[in-house]
Each structure stands twice: as structure tokens, then as C-alpha cells.
Design brief:
The chain is of the alpha/beta class. Helices cover about 30% and strands about 20% of the residues. It has a single domain, classed as Rossmann fold (3-Layer(aba) Sandwich). The chain is built from 12 helices and 9 strands.
């Protein structure tokens, strides 16, 4: 395995943790043809055996990359004593959804089998956290990886990829954005498989086109949901919930104009029906990416208090010495220093 090590400094957003060095080590966890797929492993200096967070970025499975994790959120997870593994996965439409899911499965397997050789982690205590499309992938991990994760956290994710919200033209994207032509959209994608959008920021144009035309499921899966919907059941978490599904925390703003709030409501109802431990946190008047406004927003702070509690309960997490959740998530965040190692 080719290993590239990068050491960097990040802001650890807590006044109780200053001048702390964070190591970010980058590994190629998988190579498909000529496409290297990488993971960043973050960890504070600690000799303890730590549980793991597998973090999955958003971007409609079309754009985004592992570095999209918000530093202050990363700081919270690290301060709680987690090793955080943020991964890339191959992007659509060059790679269809089955290949993307395989990447998540292989990353999970790599965490369990290889990461313990590199860091002191407990491979049996893995939580999967994702945002938007990453939230969808987190929900997919609830039934597509073995053994099941200890916990799932989905920020404004979705459990159904063939609902009207994705298979019909979006009024929001047609009324609020210029109409994208098919050729303009195709000019932003295509060619060899890629695992991140670095240097290709215009891939969002292809997503906009898909939403305006209602073609996202077909472009991402390679199947037309109007012709062969049964083939897509395997890629809809809401259709694959059983009593073995992991404890799940859903967070969603009720004013989300990209992923409908109802997606998390329906997922919560399905989890309740089957008897799976879960909670839905509704962000009043919250839009898509509601957490990007920063932890100083009381709604975001309250949501992350729930996230930290949930992770602690489901992974049997220990608290770092002399550090409480109040230190990690105060009402008003202070600025902390960072240093390069």
C-alpha cells in the first residue's frame, strides 16, 4: 500500500485544548485501475485505544472530497477521544452507485483490518457520520457493511433515492437557477474515474442539471427508476431496515430546499416501526448545510450536544481526563492556537 504522510495543523475549537498538535496522515486505502482512493486519519496525541469515526463527505455523490470536514466539528470529535477517518470515494457519474458503495465497504474493512496496525484503535467501536450524500452513505452502511457499525449519524441525509424529489424536475432548482443545458452539464464530467473534485469545482453544474431534469437517480445508478425501480431497492436504506440496523441519529432542518426534511421523517418512522434505537433532531427553520453557520449558533450547538451524547452512549466512549462535554461544547467558543508538527 502506498502511504503518503501529511502533517498539518488545525484549529481545535475548545478553550480547554490549546496549543495542541493534530497529525493528519493520508493513506491510499484502495486503488481501482489508475484511481487512487485516499483517507485522512486524524488523531490527537494519546496512547489510549480509541473508538473510530468514519466520516463521509457530501456532494450528491458527484462532487466533494475528504477535506470538506469542518475543522471545529473535527475538533469536537477529537476532543471526545475519537480517531477520525475521513475518506474519499469515487464520484458519479463516472462511477455508478454500486462502485461508490463498494468504496465505503472497502474503507470500513480497511479501518477494521489495517488501521489497528497503524494506530491504537478499537475496530469494534466504529461510528459512521455523513452529511447530505454522506448521510445517505452512512445510512447505507447500516446494512451494507459487516459487522454493523456501533452507530450512524446522518446530517440532512436521505433513505430513498427514487422518490419524486429526485426523479422529477425540482421546482426550486428550476426557479432559482439558470437552466443548464445538457451539453454544458456533460462538459463538466466524464472520462476516467475520479475520487475527489479537487480542481474540478464546476462538477456542481452537472448536479444542478440533474435536479432540474429529474435525472439524478438514472445518472448516478445507471438505471431508470421509472422502468426498473426494483433494481434500486438495494440502494435505498429505508427499504433495508431490519432489527439488526444500528442505532441512528438523524439531523435535518425543516426548511431544507435540497434534501426534503420528510426524508429524515420517513427514515425515523421506518426505524420506529422496526424497533431500532433512533432519534430525529429537527432544526427549526434550518436549511441544507445548517451546521455550516458555526457552533456559535444556538441551534447548531444544541444539535452537536445531542451528537456527542449519542456517540458517547452508543460507542461506550470514555471521557478524556479533566475534560467534560461542557468544555468541548461551551455556549461561546473561544479561539485556540494550533501548531505544526
Amino acid at each position: 500500500m502506498v502511504i503518503v504522510i501529511v502533517l498539518c495543523a488545525l484549529l481545535v475549537a475548545s478553550p480547554a485544548w490549546t496549543d495542541i498538535v493534530i497529525d493528519k496522515q493520508t493513506y491510499t486505502y484502495k486503488t481501482v485501475d489508475n484511481c487512487k482512493i485516499q483517507a485522512d486519519v486524524y488523531r490527537l496525541p494519546d496512547n489510549a485505544i480509541q473508538p473510530v469515526i468514519l466520516w463521509l463527505h457530501g456532494g450528491a455523490l458527484i462532487f466533494g472530497q475528504r477535506g470538506d470536514i469542518i475543522p471545529e466539528q473535527l475538533g469536537m470529535y477529537l476532543n471526545m477521544g475519537y480517531t477520525v477517518v475521513s475518506i474519499d470515494y469515487r464520484l458519479a457519474p463516472e462511477t455508478k452507485i454500486h462502485g461508490i458503495i463498494e468504496d465505503v465497504q472497502d474503507a470500513y474493512k480497511w479501518i477494521r483490518e489495517e488501521v489497528p496496525k497503524l494506530f491504537k484503535i478499537d475496530p469494534d467501536r466504529v461510528a459512521v457520520i455523513g452529511h447530505s450524500a454522506g448521510g445517505y452513505l452512512a445510512l447505507m452502511a447500516g446494512f451494507s457493511v459487516e459487522p454493523r457499525p456501533r452507530a450512524l449519524v446522518s446530517f440532512y441525509g436521505y433513505g430513498d433515492i427514487v422518490g419524486d424529489w429526485y426523479t422529477t424536475p425540482s421546482a426550486f432548482y428550476r426557479n432559482n437557477y439558470p437552466i443548464i443545458s445538457k451539453q454544458a452539464a456533460l462538459n463538466t464530467v466524464g472520462g476516467e474515474a475520479i475520487s475527489n473534485d479537487i480542481g474540478q469545482a464546476n462538477r456542481e453544474i452537472f448536479y444542478l442539471y440533474c435536479r432540474q431534469q429529474g435525472t439524478w437517480p438514472k445518472e448516478v445508478t445507471g438505471h431508470d427508476p421509472n422502468v426498473e425501480p426494483a433494481l434500486l431497492d438495494l440502494f435505498c436504506p429505508i427499504r433495508n431496515v431490519t432489527t439488526e440496523y444500528p442505532p441512528t441519529l438523524l439531523l435535518h432542518g425543516d426548511a431544507d430546499t435540497d434534501v426534503p426534511y420528510e426524508q429524515s421523517v420517513m427514515m425515523a418512522n421506518k426505524l420506529k416501526q422496526v424497533g431500532v434505537e433512533h432519534e430525529l433532531i429537527t432544526i427549526s427553520s434550518g436549511g441544507h448545510l445548517f451546521d455550516k453557520v458555526g457552533i456559535e449558533d444556538p441551534r447548531v450547538a444544541s444539535a452537536f450536544e445531542k451528537v456527542l451524547e449519542f456517540l458517547e452512549q452508543t460507542t461506550q466512549q470514555w471521557q478524556p481526563t479533566n475534560v467534560s462535554r461542557q468544555d468541548i461544547l461551551p455556549t461561546k467558543w473561544g479561539k485556540s492556537k494550533s501548531s505544526i508538527r
